[in-house]
Amino acid sequence: MKWVRRAGWALAAVVLLAVLAAGGGYLWLRTSLPQTSGTIALPNLAHRVTIARDADGIVTIRADNEAEAYYGLGFAHAQDRLFQMDLMRRLGAGRLSEVIGGATVDTDRLMRLFGLYRLAEAGLAAIPAEMRADLDAYAAGVNAYIDTHAGALPPEFYLLRYRPEPWRPADSLVWGKLMAFQLGTNWWDEMLRYRLARKLTPVQLGELWPLPPGSDMGPPEAQRPKDDRADLVPAMPALPWLQPSAGASNSFVVDGRLSASGKPLLANDPHLGLQAPIQWYLVRIETPTLRLVGATAPGVPLLIIGHNGHVAWSFTTTQADTQDLFREQTIAGDDAHYVTPQGPAAFEAHEETIKVRGTDDVRLTARQTRHGPVVSDLPSVKWEDKTQALALSWAALRTDDMTAVALFRMNRAQNADELMTALADFDSPVQNVLYADTSGHIGFIAAGRVPMRKSVYAAGEMPAPGWMDAYDWAGFIPFASLPQIAQPSTGWIATANNDIRPVDYFRFIAAKWDLPYRYNRIAELIEATPKHTPDSLAAIQLDTRSEAAAEVVPALLAQLEGGPPLSEPAATALTLLKNWNFQVTRDQPAPLIATAWLAELNDRVLRAKLGDLFEDYAQRNFITVTSLIAGADPSWCADAQAPRPCAALVRDAFIAAVDKLARAYGGDPNRWQWGDAHRARFTNLVLNQVPLLSLLLPAPIATDGDNFTVNRATPRTDFDSVDYSDVHGAGLRAIFDLADLDRSRFIIAGGQSGNPLSEHYGDLVERWRDGRYIELRGAGTEVLTLAPETR
Question: What is the second-level CATH architecture of the domain 549-728?
Fold first, then answer.
């Protein structure tokens, strides 16, 4: 049987070669990890710059001047996050399809239509000279890494088979435009409500999505032209590589009267989609004239959230309505013109060519009206009405946006007054800025460009008629008239995407705010402690009581009273809900039972009525269904045959939810846990597509909280199953102690590195989940020196 032995040896040789090749490939890919010690000689440096890394991979950059500090930051960012940076700038420039292919064409079309990268390039002209020097130095640092790194690139570059281009200053500025897009969701709301209006009666729409009393729908001519054909209704673009974020975050500050140290304390946890790597990169920068400590965004030479030794600042989304869709009336037989109050006007147009990997280029005619880009030209919007076009007015689409300059000056503010002076140039996105300085001042402003409309159409929640000037913009709210407060008599300020307008405020900011559950809970906890410490602020950030559940669940339970006997699992689940303390912790069954019940209730009440709009609406309005079944209109509880009591539907939904949970997690509800279904999943848009490489990602981890807890961990509701993955939450937590800013605390959801082969790719996940923090004191066990190149 010599041939068998030979075949065996041949097979063994093949396996050995494969193992050796795999091992060699792995060892080669590990050369993509950063050099963390020694000396590298680099161009464009006059002095030595050091990059110290501590045990968590957090960097401290020390330099003799600011420009060279930013050179070092660019080098460090590139070492740890080069692929993330490259993907960001390609996204902003509408160039993803060059390296990914047809899957991202719709996203590229949108970016080209908005022209975000062109705006970033135009913004360079307005940058002051000292900031431009820092941008240039940062770009030089990134390019020094790209040009001199002798090892492998991060693995994603090989999966997509391309090399990064040189970094340009405009690449850094486009990040702010993308953040404004992610946090600007009103145009999506307008499209959704417009589509819902074609499916529901006006009464039903008003119950499902109420507008403030007295909302102006305009004269009859404002409603024309109108067509009830379903195919004339716009669709929300499906952009898998770019989804607007559910705008949410927490921030709160107490002054010295309410702190044990006698100095202010400031806390912030901005909420964005959970991903790997996370959006934030922690850093400490020291020069003779500057100290910056906190969170940067890879690709950007600015401290976004942090302190500079004198003042600390934080951001949450204001929810300001900075976008309006306009229905432009086209002229029959004339595709080149549309109707304006002054008569026909020509569409402005230019051509864009999108290169697509593996197939032909895609050409786009980007049209614009007096209101803005024509979004209905995008195939993903599916707009078939040839009598109208949809144009978007958006405050972020302006060449005079000075937000990056405002951040640059905030980084250098010596006190609260100088910070406010810098914020006068903060344009987009509109943000709630809470701040405190070492002299004891605290304050808040909703900073940014909020449009002043001549008249607000449908509370800004429906596309306005563009052929009239009644709903046009007439400038922006002056900085001095934006909601703001300094040195409050209460001694504290908090924001949680709630309505931040003072009681007597008359200007329109938005019609839609986040529900006040998180804000009310933060206020309750602040007022419950006479003297706060960083520990007490951390406890508030990690609070898991759901005020929404405390309000909704007892009302639903009341509708189960007096019905027929329940099965043993259902009766046990009912007892668990009755005894629930409304803490949404990962070890409890009650949050899972309540969420499954509400999901089933949404499905039974709304799916048939909303059709293909059901999930778009229900995901973002999860508890609205409880007000519908409690209302006076029994039609919400009707099925295909006939109306029936809402209590019967509530009961059926509860039984169905328990049955689903039993099939998924076993027959004993006492053994169910919220964490079984609610796990944070750190997706990577490239590695998740490769089965074996996806194993390199941080493992899903059971988490506390839900959409309404201060420790916000928004579940992605799967209405067909009982999986509620944690997809959106506090990717960064920060607590600033103005008595000693070096004792400020930070944590990010993930790790400092964007390289899946690094030990720092996900090493902070458990500490983030469990509410542990780190300090950025500048310690470093490994030090890399960037030295001037000698010739």
Answer: Orthogonal Bundle (1.10)
